[in-house]
Amino acid sequence: MATLLDLKARIKAVANIKKITRAMQLVAAAKFTRAQNRARASRPYTKELDDILGVLATLTEMLSEEERTGRTIDFSFKENEEPLRASWSKLLEQKEETKPGLVLITADRGLCGAFNTRLLRAAHQFIDEHEGKDYKLLLIGKKGYTYFRTKKHPIIYHRHGISDKLNLDEIKEVARNLVELFINDEVDALHLIYTRFKSAMISHVTQEKFLSIPPVKEKETAGADLYILEPDRDVVFQRLFPLYATTKIFSALAESFASEYGSRMTAMQLATKNAEEMLDSLIIERNRLRQAIITKELAEIVGGAEALK
Amino acid sequence: MAVTFHLEILTPNGSELDEQVVSIVAPGELGYLGVLANHAPLITTLSIGDLKVTFEGNREKHYRITGGILKVARNEAVLLTESIEESGE
After folding, report:
1. Which residues does chain B have within 8 Å of residue A48's beta carbon, measured at their own beta carbons?
2. Number of neighbouring beta carbons within 10 Å of residue B29
3. Would the CB atoms of B45 and A236 count as touching at under 8 Å?
4. Cα separation of B37 and B35, whole Å?
5. What residue of A is the nearest CA neighbor of B11?
6. Which pTM was predicted?
């Protein structure tokens, strides 16, 4: 049986925990609102860019075999940097994947419910599906890295500490690194797994193809060849491709951050509620115990007085 | 009444403008280019420069952009840019 002192210590501990989870909840809520707005705001831009890329993809279908292998495209992510070079075929071909790469976006920190666990599970599923192939892992976020580091998986890229303010320069760097690995044939396809945000309570782990230009959809083909491309197709593509790569990462991060904060907010809310319930029952227990001691003492006094009579 | 078309300016941080406009003058890669209503379908890259948007009633807005992409089709223009700032004049 716990003594009064034990109970008092526990009450104090639980009250402290409650204070911490409550503070974390409030911080997550504030960050969540911002992250949510950012994720929502970036969606139209991302969609439009996808559409334009779709038009270009239609046009590149008309490329001859020679052009595909012979023509190269240079592109740079920032001004005054060494451009990257790739042939059309590298960017277009939907060949059999022998070296698929998985870009996994996890959170840097924990205490956000099942957020990271779900991503790791999806990653494992990906690895199982590509069993036997020369798959590679590219990890964005500390949680995914610390998890896979101890296991024997080939990690060719990792990065963490990306600001939730989504600094474009920082993201361009990440996008460039990924594109570089792709062009240098470290991987021959990239798959992106991240959490897509729906609401504070709901988010979905999503898997998307990244970098390879998507196959053309039927309805996009109509009228695509009517577009005038200024100055010409190659230049437009040259400018569009880095924009596309950056935006893909940007929007995935925006979605991921919003989901992370939403998830943390919900998890901390639950933790605070649990602490409250625990606190209530502990306080009742303490009061009962205290009352029992008082009653016992009173009974002793009454008993003693009775004996003196 | 001037003939108008729809212009939307999008950045990764949200929509900057979403209105009916009469004309735009944008900094194309090969020099400034103007777009009026009923323009032929066009996709062009933009470089750093000034963007001028004219609304009905000769109201004008000036922006600075750091490059981007402009798509025009079926009287809908979409300008994608990473950063844009309204400038005076």
Report:
1. 10, 71, 78, 80
2. 16
3. yes
4. 7
5. A45
6. 0.87
